[in-house]
Amino acid sequence: MLRAMLSVIIPTLNAEQTLTRTLSPLVTAAVRGLVQEVIVVDGGSSDETLEIVEAAGAKLVQAKRGRGTQLAAGAAAARGNWLLFLHADTVLDASWIAEVEKLFEQIEAGRFRDHEMAAAFKFALDDFSGWARFLEFMVALRCALLRLPYGDQGLLIDRALYRRIGGYRDLPLMEDVDLVRRIGRRRLVMLRAMAVTSPARYLKDGFIARSLRNLGCLALYYMRVPPRVIARIYG
Predict the structure, then answer these.
(1) DSSP labels, 148-169
(2) Which numeric CATH code is attached to 6-199?
(3) What is the DSSP letter of 78?
């Protein structure tokens, strides 16, 4: 195999409150030679996001607002043979580098049927409440039973596989589920390292309401309701 080199792709829209923390765990990986580049794809921020990107030395790509569109634009600009898609309010814990390097070693050693693989991290919320722990448990259960991680768990994917299955589509919602389903269970590995996500949306909407909203979106998607219709229903 070619040496694994990551292009980290982060979509942003007014992400000044969280972006610095998201970028920090990537520094050590860059020093080790694992991360080749960090690409921030901005959808029209009006805060200090662009200044943070410049100060961090990341590559800035500007694209039409929309997470699927922005992620696709970042992938098109990437040079690495592996892509790591990461939300701007998600922080990888310190063990992520060792986990990813171990995965690459196992792929190279032929531990999997296919060299073209993908992986996602363990979901965690940056909150100490019992509701946060319950939600983490439910997400872990979903991933164990359905092998269906969401975008806030990060997605690491071989670039050749990403291209072969068509990459991210220009969807207003469910772009992460759409891509993961095309990857398939056999080619997706769940890592133990945590992707720690901001609880802001859950604190604003309420843990129960937000969880039911997400579940409703997923149910409608599996019922083949078009994502644009789901986006209108749930705002």
Answers:
(1) ---GGG-EEEEHHHHHHTT---
(2) 3.90.550.10
(3) -
